[in-house]
Amino acid sequence: MAEDNPLPIRTVTFHYLKSMLTTRAATYACKEVTPECPVEGTIYGYAPNYSTTVEFCVIFFICCLVQLAQMIRWRLWSFSISVILGALTEVIGRILLNQNPYSSIGFQMQICTLTLAPAFWSAAIYLTLKHKVTVLGSQYSLIRAKWYPYIFVTCDIISLVLQGAGGGISATAKTASKIDMGSDIMMAGIVWQVITLTVFGLGSAHFLLRIKGAPKEELTFEAQRVWKSQKFWSFFWGIAIAFATTYIRCVYRVVEMAGGWKNDIMQDEFSFTLFESAMCVAAVVALCIAHPGYLFKEMRRGLNEDGSVLDLKDLEHREKEFF
Questions:
Q1: Rounded CA separation 133/142 (Å)
Q2: Which residues form a coiled coil (predicted)?
Q3: Residue 302: per-residue pLDDT
């Protein structure tokens, strides 16, 4: 009696690829959601809520205007420009997300913009630690203050390259192996971003705990004044909220991508709205409210050769005398 042989692996693979490529071909033919092109056939499996998308776009745009005014007022160019670029990129991403759900180009652009946006305001967050270390005491930091933005912004760039490359490969792939390769590369970039944020958070906590435990007579007069300032702690908690919400958003992206494309979490609009949209809004709003221009004015100062802070007005006066 002949045994029933299981379907050969190659045959299974062939039929899977045939089905996937047929679906992809049908997807390219779809211009909008119709009975012949159901929304369930898209990668996200839903048509983004239009009113919600508009509301988030309005909030991000308002934050752009607020940061622009703060930049002109306080002249903290690096901080404000980073937040503005992040908020504008979020607006572009959400507009694209609400366009034709079947658009391959729209999907690729949306992946890139929503991936890129948090990296901009993360750079602003990294920059604040540099100035905290400079003012409160560089001797309590594991590394020199100026290296914080260099190290962590570079790590963010690596993450962006990986996520962008992976998303692009998956979106244009025509074979299962290419799709899996793109997903793996993108996942590596997201995990790397979470690791970067984790190391930054631990480094920040280590520095602040050392300051807290240090004898106050070891701190400079400027450091003691800042440490006791209510404005500084308002600034600190604002940055902490921005960091925490950005971190939650990045962890969500790891969970979202872990199941591959079209998984249940990726196709759940409520999860996306809560852990992506709401977290990003909270981060940008926190960076607008806790702006260092009026809560951490030391960030608007330079340094003398001996390490003491130098007010911006003094710098301008010296420049006039020099020229």
A1: 10
A2: none
A3: 53
| Residue 67 contacts residue 80 (beta carbons within 8 Å) | yes
Second CATH level (architecture) for the domain 45-322: Up-down Bundle (1.20)
Extents of the domains making up the chain: 45-322
One-letter amino acid identity for 11?
Answer: T
Q: Tell me how far apart the alpha carbons of residues 11 and 142 are, in angstroms, rounded to a whole number.
A: 57
Q: Encode the chain in three state secondary structure.
A: CCCCCCCCHHHHHHHHHHHHHHHHHHHHHCCCCCCCCCHHHCCCCCCCCHHHHHHHHHHHHHHHHHHHHHHHHHCCHHHHHHHHHHHHHHHHHHHHHCCCCCCHHHHHHHHHHHHHHHHHHHHHHHHHHHHHHHHHCHHHCCCCCCHHHHHHHHHHHHHHHHHHHHHHHHHHCCCHHHHHHHHHHHHHHHHHHHHHHHHHHHHHHHHHHHHHHCCHHHCCHHHHHHHCCHHHHHHHHHHHHHHHHHHHHHHHHHHHHHCCCCCCCCCCHHHHHHHHHHHHHHHHHHHHHCCHHHHCHHHHCEECCCCCEECHHHHHHHHHHHC
Give the residues of the chain that fall short of pLDDT 70: 1-29, 31, 96-99, 171, 301-323
| Phi and psi at residue 309, to the nearest 5° | -75, 145
